[in-house]
Target: Isocitrate dehydrogenase [NADP]
Amino acid sequence: MSELVPITVARGDGIGPEIMEATLRVLQAAGARIAPEFIDIGEQQYLAGHSSGIAPEAWESLRRTRVFLKAPITTPQGGGFKSLNVTIRKTLGLYANVRPCVSYAPFVRTLHPKMNLVIVRENEEDLYAGIEHRQTDEVFQCLKLITRPGCEKIVRYAFDYARRHGRRKVTCMTKDNIMKMTDGLFHRVFDEVAREYPEIETEHLIIDIGAARLATRPERFDVIVTPNLYGDILSDIAAELTGSVGLAPSANIGDHVAMFESIHGSAPDIAGKGIANPSGLLLAAVLMLVHIGQPAVAETIHNAWLRTIEDGVHTAELHGSLSIGRPFGSMDFADAVIERLGQRPQKLAAVHYGEVDRDAPVQVARVATVAPHRRAAAAKAMVGVDVFVHAAGVSADFLAGQLSALLTPPFALQMITNRGVKVWPGGFPETFCTDHWRCRFVAPQGQSVTHADIIGLLQGLTARGVDVIKTENLCTFDGERGYALGQGQ
Ligand code: ATP
Model:
């Protein structure tokens, strides 16, 4: 028998303590080799003045065990409280959000009985960096950041996940027909990494048609990998389609720490009654056991749970015509799973989690590290600058005239756009314009510019009252253009 693996456990709020007790009871009966350390998170911690719902000393346990089994918490009403999940995700670098979405028809009602897919969502980048600014009276901005290391990590994680779990296809979804640089990078990295996994089928779908197909034919998907915002939306759609949101687990994986939880909340309306379904948390614990290198225990529990469901042992919210007897309480349900340890489902598909190398130290299996490949820096040349200007009640032609009179060498005014639409030269009178103008200044073909050139230009503009909001340098990298052309160009 190998050593016990320390894990950090939080009982949470609402139904959290009940479903955690039921879950740990099953884990213990199944012989999971874990040593739980308990921490307090949630409502009491918020009310005690910890704005993220976690006490400072709890971090020490998380960083030591590196594995977190978390029950749902209640965030108190009112302002000033930060999301605990966002705090943990960002602080500990949990870059992958993994959400299996499975139908359990006919035991759980769904329009899509054959659905069995996994969404791998990038968790740290994209529009979620929280870099937002008000720039003018009329215009607000949120920066979308996509990085090459971030793409490599999440895409490789998705392919590794597919390989480890015997899944045959990985679908990438982006909007790279519009966001050619950011989403284009994600798609490009997907194509690059895919070459290393020739046994896995791949496809790319534009997110809008991808989401539509997911909603109508979810059974055609296997593993889906996607940037943060799309993944956020898709994973809720997919969980809802299964009809069993209350049964769904999720994992947040980082290089150092991983967190496992149910996707439902703390359900205060049924807390303390002993009737909550512990399945979402139990299946999260199954994901955790696979992650820490105990796939055999994970498989035993998962198959016993499937058998329990198909035997008609259901908690109140699932109770229906295929249920036996009265609704089971949380603990009775756990005991029913324990009675079935060692059994396999007969109608639902059984799971198989494979073997782990018995000689491998537990830590190897615990951390799914995917080191991004760091490249040599590209040859970078600055060839111009986009100057964003706040100007209300002016026309593009007027602004172009004003700016052209204030030019300093080596710049020429190449174009002006408003909300990304080219309005000078050759704009259309029908184009609606706000008070926010992007003015592109470039050096003559092939010539590069310096920071001093840009500062000189800005000094000239601002000295004459031009309200410069911000600038973006226009660069080439190894000769390749590092900026989008304006629409209409
Ligand atoms: P949150 O904002 O934390 O997500 P919420 O009330 O919007 O909270 P949930 O806590 O997930 O969402 O609960 C929604 C409803 O689903 C609850 O009122 C409860 O009746 C039911 N529910 C959620 N989880 C369970 C569960 N494990 N077992 C039984 N019913 C549940």
Remarks:
- The longest strand covers residues 380-390.
- The chain has three domains: 1-94+257-344, 95-241+363-375, 380-481.
